[in-house]
Design a protein that fits this description.
123 residues; 5 helices; 0% strand; rod-shaped
Length: 123
Amino acid sequence: MSFSHNQAQQKNGMAIAALVLGILAALTFLTIFGGILLGLVAVILGIIAARKARGGRAPNGKMAVIGAGLGAVGIIGSIVIIAMGVSFLNSTEFKSFEECASKAKTQSERTACEKDFNKDMNN
């Protein structure tokens, strides 16, 4: 069964979308929206488009796989950033700083909290 030019282009749209979203996910992994959401959509579209290409129903299987791979990179990057943020927020140094800052009544007391926090982080 042969495809007309129009049919091939319609079937190719999913691979192109996966690649574009994968690139965006990899570039914007610092944001939850960019890395996780765009990455997840890129992976899903890439897998579907790659399966269609493998079955001979659509062109550009490599483009779909690259899009899915870049989407996965965006997801992994976002997860690493989130894990680092959670780890920092749960650290004893941050909790000590947060407690100190909440009890500080003057700017000089807040500055002293910041200095103590910076000293703790550098040790």
